[in-house]
Amino acid sequence: MKFTARKLVMIAIFGALAYVLMLFKFPLPFMPPFMDFDLAGVPELLGTFLLGPVAGIFIVLIKLLIKLATVGTASMFTGEIQNFILSISFILPASLMYRRSTFKNSALKGMLTGTAVVTFVACLSNVYFIIPFYTKLYGLSMEAIIAMTQAVNPMVDSVWKLVIIGIIPFNLIKYGVTTAIVYFSLDRLRSIFLRREFL
């Protein structure tokens, strides 16, 4: 990828916008309370589609660096690592499929593939990395984590129910909403970028 001055500026703008949207986070009803919904994936994915997968990685990095510089970390960088892994798991499969054929249907297929990939990665990383780390960091047990989720969704009474009716639907909703927003705005933004010679 050739980094022109314009592309560098646009990468910085998309990264900053992703950070701002990450601040407006909130839990979803009946979903695990330690998982927050935000729309930071929208500028990350749009920037990746418009500027390329390498730019997308830098957009995610800029978002997280701004976050660390402004509010720091409350999880010994584990939350930021998880955020990076999930963001990359979403944008890269979507971008690779989109760049084979830059039609809107290719973008949709790419985003649906990215949603499937990030949901799978989220299940593995939460069960085997994030949740065990938080139990040690805060002196909790796995039963306490399940109880937290059970308080908002009584059907969750085991780790695998936490995955099946917690982590999976949360990620499908989060990245499904991101997919819908990007799908309906991509053509318009792409025409603006092409007209102003950003790409």
UniProtKB/TrEMBL annotation:
User: How does the record say this protein sits in the membrane?
Assistant: Multi-pass membrane protein
Q: Does the keyword Membrane apply?
A: yes
Q: Where in the cell is it found?
A: Cell membrane
Similarity-based family? Belongs to the prokaryotic riboflavin transporter (P-RFT) (TC 2.A.87) family.
Checking InterPro entries in the record gives: ECF_trnsprt_substrate-spec, RibU
The protein's job, in short, is:
Probably a riboflavin-binding protein that interacts with the energy-coupling factor (ECF) ABC-transporter complex.
Indicate what this protein is called per its UniProt record.
Answer: Riboflavin transporter
| A cellular-component GO term for this protein | plasma membrane
Q: So where does this one cross the membrane?
A: 7-26, 46-69, 110-130, 162-186
Record PANTHER family: RIBOFLAVIN TRANSPORTER RIBU (PTHR38438)
Gene3D superfamilies given in the database record: 1.10.1760.20
Report the source organism. Enterococcus raffinosus ATCC 49464
Any idea which UniProt keywords this protein has?
A: Cell membrane, Membrane, Transmembrane, Transmembrane helix, Transport
Where does this chain mainly localize? Answer: membrane
One Gene Ontology molecular-function label: riboflavin transmembrane transporter activity
